[in-house]
Amino acid sequence: MAEQHTEIRENVYDWQNIMFLYNSAIKEVRTKLDIMSDEFQFIYQYNPIEYIKSRIKTPESIVNKLRRDGYETTMKNMVEHVSDIAGIRVVCSFTSDIYRLAEAIGKQEEISVLYIKDYIKHPKESGYRSYHMHIQVPIQTTKGIVPTKVELQIRTIAMDFWASLEHKIYYKFEGDAPDYISEDLQSCARIVAKLDEKMLSLNEAIMEVEARKKQGSD
Ligand code: 0O2
């Protein structure tokens, strides 16, 4: 019995220790993104980032993912196989901003890009569009440096709008929505993609007009 208690205390300690690392990784990456955003504003008088959200995955969601992927629910498996325990969502104005920002993130010395999932060029069957970067950042602790994983989801306001509502709707059906709902959601995703395209071309047209005006006044 005493042994069991010790094991539980150690597990609680391990859990808190792991969560401390993921929380620190979120702080590190958010700071880097804030600095990048300030630099964009300073150099180009334009900030591609509209807003940033972050979260730590719930224990329930971690367990579900491990089970879905056929792993035992151990902390070792969680650290090795769940790459989105620390998640940051960066919402940009235009699709072109996403790639611009992703390039800038990829160039950061302390960030290692593990892999990328481009659901903008290759949308999911559900209609989901977003750019996912799985990265690793070094967390300096008193015991040494611990490389820690973070999932970055970079999307436009329109992509975020669709994904947030679709997540809520699907949650209600626990992933088992009737076909007509899934089809309607896919059709909404196509409308959202068209809207993104239209807003991007409008922005490009406005920038061209501004550049011509500037040339005229020089
Ligand atoms: P939550 O609540 O955000 O934590 P991976 O190991 O992460 O590379 P996985 O799990 O197949 O492999 O990742 P995938 O499919 O790239 O999805 C990761 C996350 O993207 C999801 O996390 C969602 O946040 C988001 N996502 C993916 N597909 C969809 C979709 O069809 N609709 C919406 N709304 N979001 C999606 P979780 O763990 O599912 O959820």
Topology overview:
Elements: H1 2-44, E1 49-56, H2 59-68, H3 75-81, E2 86-92, H4 95-107, E3 112-118, E4 131-141, E5 144-156, H5 157-173, H6 179-217
Parallel strand pairs: 2-5
Antiparallel strand pairs: 1-2, 3-4, 4-5
Helix pairs in contact: 5-6
Structural features:
218 residues; alpha+beta; disordered N terminus; binds ligand 0O2
Strand order of the largest sheet: 1-2-5-4-3
Major β-sheet, in short? Answer: 5 strands, mixed
- Overall structural class, as computed from helix and strand content, comes to alpha+beta
- Along the chain, the helix and strand elements come as HEHHEHEEEHH
Poorly predicted runs are 1-5
Count of β-strands: 5
Rg, Cα atoms, Å = 21 Å
- Helix % is 55-70%
Mean pLDDT rating: 91
Description:
The protein is built from six helices and five strands. It is α+β, with helices and mostly antiparallel strands and 218 residues long. A five-stranded mixed beta sheet has the order 1-2-5-4-3. α5 runs antiparallel to α6. The longest helix has 43 residues, at 2-44. It starts with a helix and ends with a helix. The model is unreliable at 1-5 (pLDDT under 50). The structure holds ligand 0O2.
